Amino acid sequence: MFNSTITEDDKFSCPVDGSIMITASHLPYNRNGFKFFTNAGGLGKADIKDILELAANIYNNFTVESMKDAERKAASSVKRVDYMDIYTSDLVAAVRKAAGNIEKPLDGFHIVVDAGNGAGGFFAAKVLEPLGAITTGSQFLEPDGLFPNHIPNPEDKAAMKAITQAVLDNKADLGIIFDTDVDRSAAVDSTGRELNRNRLIALMSAIVLEDHPGTTIVTDSVTSDGLTAFIEGKLGGKHHRFKRGYRNVIDEAIRLNSIGEESHLAIETSGHGALKENHWLDDGAYLMVKLLNKLASARALGGSGGSKVLTELVEGLEEPAVVVELRLKIDQSHPDLKGGSFREYGEAVLKHLDNITESNPKLQKAPVNYEGVRASGYGGWFLLRLSLHDPVLPLNIEAPSDEDAVKLGLAVLAAANEFPALDTSALDKYVRVS
């Protein structure tokens, strides 16, 4: 959709002035919405508010006859084109270029795709096969908004298990998985090792920093301390941990560039990744093309290790033994809110936790933090933040052992227990059972 606004091709009526896609992403089929694009990128909340207000004003001035006349004119001007051919040919050309303009740089590579019955099934036949890759074993390529096999979501355990199994069953070199509308993606290497979340960020950071030494990598707030050590200690880059929300991460990278701090990658643990070279578009297909470029260029230089060239790039990434994600819900009908908003209540919880953390000698607050309360201690860290949209305080904990994770959980629980409207049952259960 975005590329159609910057492509120059009269045959396809491009560049278009704007484009609209209908998608629910990985949510159920009845949660569809619109995404709007111009050549400046995806529209944000303020833009959409303006569109709605403008549309309402136009509608109010329509008569029945003028409405019918507008509909007739619109229907007669519709032209159907297969723009996907242009889009996919650009992706194919990018991989060929990375390999020194070899026609089939992935010849002999076995790569399976799992589209989860979303929109990403095109990648097997229109990108991989023209490059010479074998794609047998690819699965769930036909779009079906009921998602009969698994949710198309690179963060979903069932989804990652499905693509991992496909790689192992087919003895493939690489597996690629997309979310529904292909703005997120992840991979699996030939041994079944998942390249998503922190590992995908580490991999993309290694690739980007080869071309742009010292650049700043912008991520969301829940990335690990081990990732920071990897980006800054091993790769020589700078890790700028910002807020959750892919648009927040992208906008922050754009802001840093505007004030003279070079940044070429903005990426969330969810699999949203955007590169400066690709107009800051969170395009999951383009992200996977960057991985294919490494495979193709390694092959062109005489290497034949399959996905090993990718896994070698993330060697040295410290990964926690224990990863915990919990959601503490705020009961909006509880009298303790005293008629206030859940957001005000959540902020009060965070303020109290911030004070407790400050006075705890075994915890150290993150020196730079843009969201919630983040602290290190007991060999790990926790982050408690307020959800962007819902009456929920998500809690992330990473630690070297269950015992250490429980200690971090208890530190949060000590503050959370002071707020009766906060449902701490998930955290209570965790610290008791672990």
UniProtKB/TrEMBL annotation:
The keyword Transferase appears for this protein: no
Keywords, sorted A to Z: Carbohydrate metabolism, Glucose metabolism, Isomerase, Magnesium, Metal-binding, Phosphoprotein
Catalytic activity: alpha-D-glucose 1-phosphate = alpha-D-glucose 6-phosphate; alpha-D-glucose 1,6-bisphosphate + L-seryl-[protein] = O-phospho-L-seryl-[protein] + alpha-D-glucose 6-phosphate; O-phospho-L-seryl-[protein] + alpha-D-glucose 1-phosphate = alpha-D-glucose 1,6-bisphosphate + L-seryl-[protein]
Enzyme Commission number(s) from the entry: 5.4.2.2
GO cellular component terms, semicolon-separated: chloroplast stroma
Broad EC category: isomerase
InterPro entries assigned to the protein according to its UniProt record, in alphabetical order: A-D-PHexomutase_a/b/a-I (IPR005844), A-D-PHexomutase_a/b/a-I/II/III (IPR016055), A-D-PHexomutase_a/b/a-II (IPR005845), A-D-PHexomutase_a/b/a-III (IPR005846), A-D-PHexomutase_C_sf (IPR036900), Alpha-D-phosphohexomutase_SF (IPR005841), Phosphoglucosamine_mutase (IPR050060)
SUPFAM superfamilies per the UniProt record, alphabetical: Phosphoglucomutase, C-terminal domain, Phosphoglucomutase, first 3 domains
GO molecular function ontology, one term from the record: metal ion binding
Annotated GO biological process: glucose metabolic process
Cofactor dependence: Mg(2+)
Domain Alpha-D-phosphohexomutase alpha/beta/alpha: 16-58, 87-192, 197-297
Gene3D superfamilies assigned: Alpha-D-Glucose-1,6-Bisphosphate, subunit A, domain 3
Isomerase found in the keyword field: yes
PANTHER family, alphabetized: PHOSPHOGLUCOMUTASE (ALPHA-D-GLUCOSE-1,6-BISPHOSPHATE-DEPENDENT) (PTHR42946:SF1), PHOSPHOHEXOSE MUTASE (PTHR42946)
Complex formation: Monomer.
Family: Belongs to the phosphohexose mutase family.
Name the record gives this protein: phosphoglucomutase (alpha-D-glucose-1,6-bisphosphate-dependent)
